[in-house]
Amino acid sequence: MELNNMRWQGFARKNGRIGIRNKVLVIYTVECSSFVAKEITRISDNVDIECVGFSGCTDNEYAVRMLISLIRHPNVGGVLVVGLGCEYVQPEWLANIAAEEGKQHAWMFIQTEGGTKKSINKGVMIVHEMLDVLKETLRVPMSISDLVIGAECGGSDYTSGLAGNVVVGRFYDMLIEMGGTAIFEEIVEAIGLVDLLTARAANEQARDELQYTYYKALDYCKAVRQYSVSPGNFAGGLSTIEEKSMGAFAKSGSKPIEGVLKVAGNPPHEGLWLLDSTPDPHWMQFGITNPNDNEGLMDLISCGCHIVLLVTGRGNVVGSAVSPCVKITGNSITYARMKDDMDFDAGLVLSGDCTLNESAQSLARMIANVASGTLTKSEVLGHKEYFIPYKYQEKQVALPSKCTH
Amino acid sequence: MEQQMAFQINFRDNVATALTELNKGPVVLRGDSLQNVVDVKEHVLVGHKIALRDIDYDEDIIKYGIVIGRATQSIAKGKWVHLHCMRSIYDERSSHLDIVTGKPKDIKYE
């Protein structure tokens, strides 16, 4: 079927957005309540119940904004927030946000409930009640133009820049032509490409944002003497960060970049966006740029991505909480070796078995299927990774204020 | 023997990426290439780069049509292009890595 005509039933949300999954999130607000939250999730044993949380006792603004964005996420229909009782991050306050969004909501303090067992028993009961209510969620038609898709790469090898990211880039071009929204990240993997980046800006404001964000990342890399390139990348044939950057940048496709999103910020309109997940300067010691792939996926999901794409040459097994993760490799050997984990083989482009357009179209069909309910490999296996670190970020791109007189 | 292949991404590139393990002898070029075949001069692992023409000391290394680094010695056409003969313009650490494994050698941890 023509991609343009594909329709499926999504889950209507009060804020007007449409979800592709209808999940209950069990959220812990401090490490001390994480065991109880994870046990509630494990014992409930349902694909639509999953756990996320933040370990810190301090209410790190960045981390709390991220939790709020997950509560508001269109794939989430209900929220149970579990706190210990003495931490800064307040479960009641988070549950109230879910209530404002018209979602199922509940919260508890383990200290008040009387400890581990009582809290787990109560929690399991609550999430099952929520699932029952969620069966009645209003379904509405949805098409590709309603989708927000995120992409990042990890475990890159020489195929990522030749096939994996290139196919994603071509798919992004199609998605945007059909009126959808695409987000790509990893500004630390754009080092060396400032001219290419700014030349793609949709307007003056976007150009300023891209330039500021690029130099912020470059300053950071210089300061810590560490660029986003690792021994495995070098062993695989990549010689410099510039070479890796170009391979990573390929996943942005060729459309104009509308601007820079900050973590937990929703794209103001459709089109292509760069996500800046690097810390902002004055508290930069709070968290490094890319601690791991799941942190990057969580950043994309916090911006409202329905589905996230993880491009990997060397292979990966992770999935994600909140949004399905489609794992793509440009390396057919990796695909064959890790077939239970990898969703899509873009390596057929390199072997000459299909064209770039054919590959991008088959990826688009796979994504539409996932949106309509087909489980990804990581969903089938039960992968629900998440990672929310301490970090400091401004809410908007911190452009230097222009002199007005 | 399986045909040896490499991929040139952009017409401007002076390097191509090995799609198979390469041994001395002719290599078929795929992608945006003006030459069909290049003679490789040494063993090159899959995913690594070969020089498509003679490259001078301090000349730009070009892949994807953009500068990805600079030659730290002259490189003959058909030779392996990697950490031993090129460097990043930004990342000084990558000039201190083991050329085969990519492992860091610039910090003595103990």
Automatic annotation (TrEMBL), chain A:
GO BP term (any one): D-galacturonate catabolic process
Keyword entries, A-Z: Hydrolase, Lyase
Molecular function per GO: hydrolase activity; lyase activity
Domain D-galactarate/Altronate dehydratase C-terminal positions: 144-390
Source organism, top-level taxon: Bacteria
Family assignment from sequence similarity: Belongs to the UxaA family.
Stated name of the protein: Altronate hydrolase
Organism of derivation: Marinisporobacter balticus
Automatic annotation (TrEMBL), chain B:
Domain SAF: 13-87
The keyword Lyase belongs to this UniProt entry's keyword annotation: yes
Keyword entries, A-Z: Lyase
Classification via CDD domains: SAF_AH_GD
Pfam families: SAF
Domain of life, source organism: Bacteria
GO molecular function: lyase activity
A Gene Ontology BP annotation from the UniProt entry: D-galacturonate catabolic process
Name used for this protein in its record: Altronate dehydratase small subunit
